Amino acid sequence: MELSDRKQKILQAIIDEYIGTAEPVGSRAISKRNELGLSSATIRNEMADLEDMGYLVKPHTSAGRIPSDSGYRFYVNSLMQRYQMSVEAVEELKNALAERVSQLDVLIKRASIVASTLTDYTTVVTSPALNRSTIQKLDLVNLGNGMLMLIIVTRSGLIKNRVLAVDISEEDTSRLQSVFNERLAGRVADEITLEMIKEIEDFAETELKIPTKNVIAILNFLYEAIDDLDETEVYINNAKSILQYPEFSDVKKAREMMDFLENKENLVKLIGGSKDEITDGVGIKIGAENDFEALENSSLVTVDYRFGKRVLGKIGVIGPKRMNYAKVIASLDCISSHIDNILKQLYDTEGEG
What is the CATH number of domain 5-79? Predict the structure, then answer.
């Protein structure tokens, strides 16, 4: 059943009021604070209809009503006013993201902080899974005392490094690094097979005369490091901020939420599965749409960030269902756009990252 224009205006007024106050909304409050030109009795009747239609719910302890998940969904899809960020806020955001950023992981961590500052909600950002990333170079750094560091740099600037206990000379370290780059640099990570690693092992032993045990140890280490490039990193910022909202004043709900936010696997599933409710290119999940019981009183808003045409990861904001959706969406959209622009400036936009 379609909502009449009057019902839509009343629903919008109720949700706007509830977002600001966190208190159940009565007909009198709407008639006083909104220029609808309707009597309190008329608004009350319309509110009763909206409740019957599933857009509002009436808490047991209050005469007022609050939005249901369906009410919020209709609001963000059809009623929400567009939020316009100020020129000053956009400039501050741009400067905060661009300052001294030369690596993707640094940029993504900073984006999490900026998003949390702009919205005052918990933010979650995922880094790219790099199994489809092009390896730009591989470095071997002899640390001395039988320790060796392997550094993998992708074309998008993300760096992975590991330290291995192996006794190898400076000369052999340099020669092996050259072979790594000759054979593997410029390749996509998930195209590097065990057979390729075996060929490098044979070459290092027969042509370079590097002791077998050292070559095997380093190459096994290299293969494991490349294989691990498909692991998505998750950065969370301002997790405790969600506890300031009255929806989480209950100790049990607060504990469940914090336990959820501390679990990386939960966050990867949450952010990774946020594609099915899209508004203006932004993913929105409200309450039970999140498929996690701990988030029944929360909403998640996400946006992709890209390198060229390729989606690298997501920036997400978690807050109460009565969050200021318009401001969150505008903030994330602006952050995503600036990340895209920064990556275009830093790296070859035709690269696959």
Answer: 1.10.10.10
Q: Give the tokens for residue 242.
A: 């969600």
Topology adopted by domain 133-230: Enolase-like; domain 1 (3.30.390)
Give the count of alpha carbons within 13 A of 204, CB side only: 29
Alpha-carbon gap, residue 19 to 217, rounded angstroms: 58
> How far is the first Cα of the chain from the last one, in angstroms, to the nearest whole number?
47
Output DSSP code: residue 79: I
Alpha-helical segments (H) within the chain: 5-21, 27-33, 40-52, 69-74, 87-98, 104-119, 170-184, 194-206, 212-227, 251-261, 264-272, 325-346
CATH for 87-128+232-346 (3.40.50.2300, 3.30.450.40, 3.40.50.1110, 1.10.10.10):
3.30.450.40
Alpha-carbon distance 172 to 119, whole Å? 52
Per residue of the chain (353 residues), what is the pLDDT tens digit? 689 999 999 999 999 999 999 999 999 889 887 678 888 999 999 999 999 999 999 987 777 999 999 999 999 999 998 898 888 889 888 888 877 666 677 888 889 999 999 999 999 998 776 556 788 899 999 998 889 998 888 776 667 788 888 888 899 899 999 999 999 998 887 788 888 888 988 998 888 888 888 888 888 888 787 777 666 778 899 998 888 999 888 899 899 999 999 998 888 888 875 444 445 568 999 999 998 999 999 999 999 888 777 777 889 999 999 999 999 999 999 999 988 888 777 665 444 44
Name the residue with tokens 């489809």: 132
